[in-house]
Amino acid sequence: MDFITNAISQETTEDQQLSTTSFGIPNEGDGDHMSNRRMEGSRLLDLNDEEFGANESELLVSEALGTPEGNRASSIDADADIEVDLSDRKQRRLSSRGNAYRSGNSNEASSTTGKTLVSQKEQSSLLERFIDEFIANYSDHSLQAINPADYKNHSNWSALNTTRAVDKMQCGGVITLIDTEIITSPNYPENYPNDVRCTWTLLAQLGTDLDQIQLDFLDFALERGTCINDYISITDHAVGASKVYCGDDYPPVLLSMGNSLTINFFTDDTINRKGFSMRVQGIMTNCGRLFNIVGNETFLFSTPENIVDARCHWLIISESAVSLELINYFGEKALQDMLSVKTQDFGVMEPFDNNKVYVSKTISVSFVDNVRAREYSQPGAQFQVFPVKRVRLCNTTIDMKPNMSFIINSSNYPNGYGDNEKCLVTLQHPMGEEYIIKLQFIKFDIEEHPDCIFDNLTIIDDGENFHRTYCGTVRKETYKTKSQELKLYFQSDYRNVFVYEGYSIYARIHRMRKNECVLTNSQSNVWILKSPPLPYVYQGFTVCDIKIEESSVQRFKIIFKKFNLESKSPCTEGDYLSVTDKFINNTKSYCGNMEGESVMTAGNDIDFKFSSDFYDSAREFEIEVRGLPSSNCGGNTILAPGTNVNLRVSTNEEECVWVVKSRNSSTLVLDFKRVSDVRISQSAMYNDLFSYNARTVNFIDPSDRYMVVSNEERAVIQVNSYSTYSECETELEVKKRPIIVTNGGIAPCPITIKRPQNKKERLAIRYTLISLPQITCPVRILDREDGTASKLCSSDWKKGYITTSTEFSIDSILHSSDTVNNYMVFIDPIKFTCGSSYNVQEDKIILKSKTLDHKTTCVYRFKSDGNRIALDIATSNKRALNTISVSTDGSFQSLKGLSDDITTSLVTKKEFLVVIEPFSRSVSFVIQVMKDLPVTDLCNTCLIVGLESQGAVVTPTSKNLNAYPGGLNCDVKFEGKDLNRTVALEFQKIDIPMNTSLDTLTIVKEGVETIIHPTRISPLPYTLLLETPFSVKFKSRSNEEYEGYKFGYNVIECGGILTLNEEKTTTIKSPGYGNVYPTYTECFWHIEANITNISDRIQIKVKKLNLHRSDKLEIIDPLFSHSPIYTFTGIVDESVITTVGNQLRVIFKSDSNKVSDGFLLEVKPILSGCGVDIDTATVGEGTISTLDFFPNTDYCLFRIRPSEGKVMLLEPVVKRMPESIRRIPNNSECKDGSVILSDKGFLSQGKAYCNEESLPVVMTTQDLLLLIKTPALPPLEFRFKAGGCGGEISNENPIGSLSSPNHPDPFHGPMTCTWTSRTAMLVAVKYIDLLPETDYLNLTDINHNVTLAGNAYPYYILLDMPSVITFVGGSTDVRMGFELDYEFVDHQGVWNVDFAQPAMIVGWPGTQHRPSAWHVVGPRGGRGLTIMVWAAYIPSDPDCSTHFLHVGGVNEEGERVCGGAGLRTIHVYGREAILVLHTTSPLAVLAASVHVMA
Q1: Which one is predicted more confidently, 234 or 1292?
Q2: Which of 623, 674, 894, 977 fits a disulfide with 946 by CB distance 3.0 to 4.6 angstroms?
Q3: Secondary structure letter of residue 106 according to DSSP
């Protein structure tokens, strides 16, 4: 019966399915003619659908009662006694319509809040009355659709007069579709009138009852709203579904499920609009079938065989959900557009997609003949329909059966899932190994996280050892397994916002076919292999295993006579045929179109395996396998490690084929001789052969097998086999034979290479990257002995590098991309018979070619002591330079050939490595290596410094003197050669006046001048770290009195100046950290905290440290000590060091011995908050109190700088320490705190005070460091004052006097005054009045240390240079102090006399117009000394005040001799006598003898 007959019968009283338009009664709530189905996604849902939750059921009941969704809460009681019998479509449809009438006007109903609905009993009675009235009034009339608007204003059905005439516009009719028809609304394109009631019944009877109707709206404009006023409804009678449209939105193109549609158009009496225009046409079918499914049955249906112009339509209607699967398709995949499907009541067909899951109660399938497919004679497509069982339960086991499919949903799918769910579903089947389980994700939408730590689903396949976890959104995921048990485990966290749908997964088991291929052997050594026969029912997952072995042939030729399988890349999925060549253990898979092609095997033992998957079953194939007999040229060879074979072509009359295979996991390397044309396969498979010529053969990678094909006469190809090692983290000792090292695609994969240690032989290893790199730099070489961490890159391919280290490491580099890093490195042990190693000291080292062995390779090393060394090569023949390579860092990796210059000069601070290859006797050369430390005394110069720059700078001096002249204005500039460099300046000597107004040494950086003050720098040597560019400037006014300065400069390879401006951690690493640090490395970091003041400290933490025992890391605290406070070497665990102030220096040095991993340090500032840096040149006096920094007084550091050349005084306000600061018993440490005072430049040389110890008054001309580590209370307070007595006695005042403060008045102590002199002087103490208990005057030089107290004067002393005069006055206002005169002299030395050995003195006037002075010392026990002046020529001076000879003792004034005096005898009592010759005449002369008085 066709569909129109069904539709008409539905309008009768027979007990069949009722059409939604039988009574013309629409749903006034939303305009939807209530069908027994509701559109949802891509499938139809029933109210009793297992997927429906309470909310969805309520929604459909709401629609059935004619209630708009927005008013549902006020119109429907969720607990109302409403029973819907879903098994009876008529009853359900009538019941829903009765409710629609019972509710009356929907607008009125929705506005009446809390209105009580009629009971179900009243509803049934009302429904029965309506049916009775309808039958009574219309039993004698033709059935006509009546619009429900006729009943709008009636509150109950009994008031309806069904027999009266209907004064409405009528239109519509029955249309049998033959051609395309156009249906429009009344008056179109003008506005349609009021109260239109139109019904069109469309029939398609073009071919079969399965014809379809397509609707395409060309124009559409109805009243906007909720589709209860003006609307159009479309009913598909085949499935009993309706759809309502209104407003301006064009309905989509619609394709019916069956061959009849009813279109109803209704308008009210309000707004009129343009209406609609639609194109309708019938779609003819000439094949197909209607399937009505009642139970859990499965069935097959197929496309027709070889029907031209076929147009098939299959309609599946089931009471429960079923799935549709395409199980076989025998055409090209590109022709699958002939198949289309839909699971929605309305809409168009979509192309069939194997990756989708089609599940619904209604499925429409169509097949349209495609002219492109007519060339194929095979059957088309075959479908199978399976019943579907939905699973929502957790912790359940599903017993799978071949004819049943399953849908596994999350708990509330598609409305999310619960909190803290732990759900395990186990899928299992007992069907055996020929079945597989297949999962397809229909929908997957759960909470996303990169590591899936919140919500996740895990597939657990223990049989395949497969676990995979999913989260987020996953599309088109498919999983297949041969395991008989598969688990799905879902878990959610404690909080889930319902924005995720959950998951829905389709599961079924499939059967595989095995060994149905056909193999025949019709003639000798010829086999025919055919695919399984193609029955009408062709299952997927076909597997065939075929073996062919024939000892009478050497190899096989495989010819693909018919072959056109599914094409995929690679051919290991889908449908494919694989061929395994047992001789080379190689498997090659084939798919796609191979017809007419052929391949050759390497051996005579092969296996075939054919496999097809579930999709797109293969077309038939036919393969011919032909055995090839042995020939005179070529053959098969298996090579063991350390062996080789030569492949020779004797004649070009035939093509030679060789197959060479390695044994015991060795690797083969080809060496070509006299080869210009050859074909080679690195897989030993014939179809992989590639042509090479003489230029391209070098690009062939090593392999474990080769097929070589050639007919080039006299060609020779040597195949070498080498042992190959690929095990990571192993040690390999290479002795005599070369080996190959590979990583097998693993990264990282460290392998240690060792060589024998033999002191008698010079052994080395050459390593070469022999495989073409797949990434730019695949290999890392770690040579700890050589101190190098280098990479082998594509530019290093087939370049040999040598190392003499006893061991080194090879590792693969992990690449950021997915590219597999697979390398091969050739390791070759070598031996040197010529060469030596030298330590370059003071002497030159010279090598001459005539003394060398010119037939062998010689290796020489020249090691420095950290200073620069220079290498010079001179030759008369440029060819000699081609045989010499030099490295300036001692590494073979950095060896470079020399240029073509006749003379070559190189410098380094590390080590020269010189390799001399064999050379001809006709060439000659000389190699000279020596120290090279340039010293410049240029006053104005610019030094361009690079990485290896090193040298020294000294002050220019006067001729024949060690002193510099006056009037110098020097400027030594430092600039980087190629970029800014860090330069370490080490001041080894600074001999300039303390008064910087005379001579000034400054550093100028970025326009800022910093004075190098002799009294304010740490003890020499003193190091500064500077970044280029900068200048060292020196100006002099003094003349030939001081020796000046000397500083070395050294460009630091690593390190620099690090300023810590924030309280955050900064890291310091050794060079190459992560690998190894290099040899001959010196790094210098100067770190300074620049947050508040000098009291900020720096904390340095050693995180990792691994140094060779000959290398060291030094930590220097510049404010604590000149020497390192810590020196690290070896392996050190975490260690923390804190400085005393805001400066820190880190120095790292490595020598030429082995190296190690290096170090990683962390530095950070520690904010003190208590301390200050005071310059008394700016602040003359003031007070320091810890109370000013309360409460941050646990650590306070102060530095007080005196004015230039002046004395600075510091005294405590409270001279004793607080009671709370007590010294630990029997310990030098203070219990609760201490105060440290130091004017030596370092706190380590200061003195600590605690426990009521008196704090001294300090007077000094040096910087004073004051460190206070005491409790906050009571506070400590100090006064400081600049000025006072003391200072340097300048050469500008060669004659003068010194006295105590306030002299001749009493001095006010306590005080300390210090004078220094760099020139010898005669001192005469004229007056002294000191309190012996507290006061003293000390005069010191290299020969004297005299302390005077009381009133012991006069006193004369001759002080040599340098000398110091110190006055300490502890008394206050009680003594007059002292006064002395001084005069600069030229000290002529000390003369010692004895009883039997007098001293003879012959002298002349001193230089620079200074008097000459002689100091004579006699023995103990004598009464004194007798000075006999034999001759003295002194210019005449009547007053003896300008030109004279003064002779005296220590405690007596003495006598003066002047004029041309002859013999004169003078007695001096005491052991010491002083002779001073005062004259400016260059002609003056003195001759005297000194005797001891007995």
Answers
A1: 234
A2: 977
A3: H
Please give the Cα distance from 1056 to 1058 (Å, whole number).
6
Distance between CA atoms of residues 551 and 627, nearest Å: 10
Tell me the C-alpha distance between 1144 and 1085, whole Å.
8
For the stretch 1116-1119, contacts whose Cβ atoms lie closer than 8 Å and that sit 24 or more positions apart, written own/partner, are: 1116/1144, 1116/1145, 1116/1146, 1116/1147, 1117/1141, 1117/1143, 1117/1144, 1117/1145, 1118/1018, 1118/1143, 1118/1144, 1118/1145, 1119/1094, 1119/1143, 1119/1197, 1119/1242, 1119/1243, 1119/1265
Tell me how far apart the alpha carbons of residues 1172 and 1095 are, in angstroms, rounded to a whole number.
7
The conformation of residue 1307, written as its DSSP 8-state character, comes to: P
128 membership: H or E segment, kind and range: helix 120-138
What average pLDDT score do residues 281-287 get? 90
How confident is the model at residue 742, as a pLDDT?
A: 92
Bridge partners, residue 254, by sequence: 215
Give this prediction's pTM.
0.50
User: 481 pairs with which residues across the strands?
Assistant: 437
> In this model, does residue 155 exceed pLDDT 80?
no
Tokens representing 437 are 């389980």
Q: Among 210-214, 442-446, 1427-1431, which is the least confidently predicted range?
A: 1427-1431
Around 1220, how many Cα atoms within 13 Å sit in the side-chain half-sphere? 10
> Do 252 and 342 contact (CB within 8 A), yes or no?
no
**Do residues 1012 and 1024 lie in contact, with contact meaning Cβ atoms separated by under 8 Å?**
no
Taking the C-alpha atoms of residue 657 and residue 663, their distance in angstroms, rounded to an integer, is 20
C-alpha to C-alpha distances, 439 to 23, 46, 354, 452, nearest whole angstrom: 47, 26, 13, 21
Alpha-carbon distance 1010 to 996, whole Å?
12
Helix 120-138 to helix 89-103 angle (10° resolution) is 100
Q: Nearest CA to 458 among 416, 438, 487?
A: 487
Query: CA angle 239-241-246, nearest 5°?
Result: 150
- Return phi, psi of residue 402, to 5°: -60, -30
Residue 212 tokens, joined? 């379809």
φ, ψ of residue 165 in degrees (nearest 5): -70, 145
Q: Write the burial class of residue 1463 (CB in 10 Å: 0-12 exposed, 13-18 middle, 19+ buried).
A: exposed
Residue 933 has pLDDT above 90, yes or no: no
3 state DSSP class of 373: helix
Residues near 621 by beta carbon (within 8 Å), at least 6 away in sequence: 530, 531, 560, 562, 563, 564, 565, 577, 610
What are the start-end ranges of the E strands in 95-166? none
- Cβ neighbours of residue 1085 closer than 8 Å, sequence gap 6 or more: 1055, 1056, 1057, 1058, 1068, 1145, 1146, 1147
CB distance 1259 to 1203 below 8 Å:
no
What average pLDDT does the segment 202-228 reach?
Answer: 90
**Per the omega criterion (within 30 degrees of 0), is the bond before 1294 cis?**
no
Distance between terminal CA atoms of the chain?
Answer: 165
Tell me how far CA of residue 486 lies from CA of 411, 442, 455, 479, in angstroms.
Answer: 19, 18, 20, 11
What was the pLDDT predicted at 900? 53
Name which of 859, 847, 886, 865 is nearest 932 in CA terms.
865
* DSSP secondary structure, 913-956, as one string: EEEE----TT--EEEEEEE---EE--SEEEEEE-TT-EEEEE--
Cα atoms in the 13 Å half-sphere on the side-chain side of 1142: 25
Half-sphere exposure of 308 (CA within 13 A, CB side): 3
At 957-974, the pLDDT tens digits run: 887 788 888 889 999 999
What are the distances in angstroms from CA 1017 to CA 572, 1125, 1135, 1233?
Answer: 78, 19, 30, 29
Query: How many whole angstroms separate alpha carbon 1369 and alpha carbon 1371?
Result: 6
Name the band, by pLDDT with cuts 50, 70 and 90, for residue 1060: confident
Residues 6+ apart with CB under 8 A from 1441: none
Distance CA 920, CA 151 (A): 122
Residue in this structure with the two tokens 């020596």, named with its chain if needed: 930
Average pLDDT of span 344-366: 86
